[in-house]
Each structure stands twice: as C-alpha cells, then as structure tokens.
Specification:
five-stranded antiparallel beta sheet, mainly beta, 163 residues, single chain
C-alpha cells in the first residue's frame, strides 16, 4: 500500500510539513517534517481513508495548508493459488502450488472430508512447496494465499492418500 505525494516548491522555504488526518482538516494520523529540498514523499500507508495536505515553513512561520487530498488506501484479497498438487513417496508428502503475486504467506487447510479443516490449518510462510511426513489415511487438502487484507479463496482441493 504505497502512496506517493508530490508538490511544487515555493520560494524561501525551510521545510515542509505533511499532515494527515482521519477527518477533513485534522492532522491526527501523522505530521511529518520534510526538508525544503523534498518535493515528494512516499510512504507505506495503513488501510483507511486519510485527508492529506502540505504546509511550508520559512523564517516568518507556516503557510496556509495546501488543498486537501483524500487518500483511500485499500486492498483486495489475493487470488487462489493455482495448480495445487501433491506427490507421495511412502509416508512423505510434498505439496506444490503456483505462487500468487501479492501473497504474504500461504495457509494449508487439511481435513478428513471434502471442505473440512478439522485436521490442520496453518501458515507455511511465503513459499510454494511444503514437505511433511503423514500417517496412513485419506487427507483433503487445499491452499489459500494471504496478504494484509486477509486470506483469499482456496485453491483446488486434492485428495492425498497415504498407504
């Protein structure tokens, strides 16, 4: 959630003050002092709606605020991992899937019946493969990608059978 702000420089400016508020005219979210040489600012912003303006400061004091810009920082859930598959060698199971561009990590869901998660639901980190030892049985597995907004839809569900 990267946001960039740009403004033009005035004369005799010593520094800029970037103010962000949760409501119009407020600066309760952030107040940042920036050198006069800066005419832009890039920040990783949290989710939400912010009202942002810039003021200049020189030896005489602060200018009136610039026009206020409404910034809506939002995101969407990641896509489902594609091509979820398993390879079984004895009791060793290797799961692989295609990565999702905006995934921060992946959640493996395993159940004793289709659609269930009664056996396991855990984060595997930001990887596209996982190997484990499993006892004999039938396991229904699927993968979900997760980002700052939450977990997306599940991949195709596969049946993994360990003899």
């Amino acid at each position: 959630n990267i946001v960039r702000f740009d403004w033009s420089n005035g004369s005799d400016v010593e520094e800029f003050v970037l103010e962000a508020g949760m409501s119009p005219g407020q600066s309760n979210a952030a107040t940042l002092l920036l050198p006069a040489s800066d005419r832009s600012f890039t920040v990783a912003a949290p989710l939400g709606v912010f009202y942002v303006r810039v003021r200049a400061r020189n030896a005489c004091g602060y200018s009136a605020p610039s026009n206020e810009v409404v910034v809506n920082v939002s995101c969407s859930l990641p896509a489902a991992p594609a091509s979820f598959r398993a390879a079984v060698n004895g009791s060793i199971v290797t799961l692989e899937w295609n990565g999702v561009a905006d995934a921060g990590d992946y959640i493996l869901d395993v159940g004793s019946a289709p659609g269930a998660t009664d056996l396991l639901s855990t984060s595997l980190g930001n990887t596209t493969s996982f190997t484990a030892v499993a006892p004999p049985g039938n396991y229904y597995a699927r993968m979900r990608a997760r980002n700052a907004c939450g977990a997306g839809s599940a991949s195709n569900e596969i049946l993994v059978t360990i003899q």
